[in-house]
Amino acid sequence: MTREPKYPITVHFLEDTEIETYDSELELVTSLEWFDSSDPEWKVKVQDVTGASINLKVDALQVTLLEYKYLTNR
Fold first, then answer.
1. 29, 46, 51, 70: most buried by Cβ count inside 10 Å?
2. pTM score, two decimals?
3. Do residues 33 and 62 make contact, with C-beta atoms less than 8 angstroms apart?
4. Which residues on adjacent β-strands are paired with residue 65?
């Protein structure tokens, strides 16, 4: 069984120190229409309600990726 991140999801925009919190998938897709937390141009940190880091991708108003980010080979 795979655990899924829990809402609210918080996005920390590191360039301007803005923090946005989304309580549902609907809020995520309507605010972040096109978004990819793994894209280095975004410069963001995304966390779920527990503070765990997650990967988030929104394409054309659909969440296509919402999963925990696991540390590997550090």
1. 46
2. 0.86
3. no
4. 57
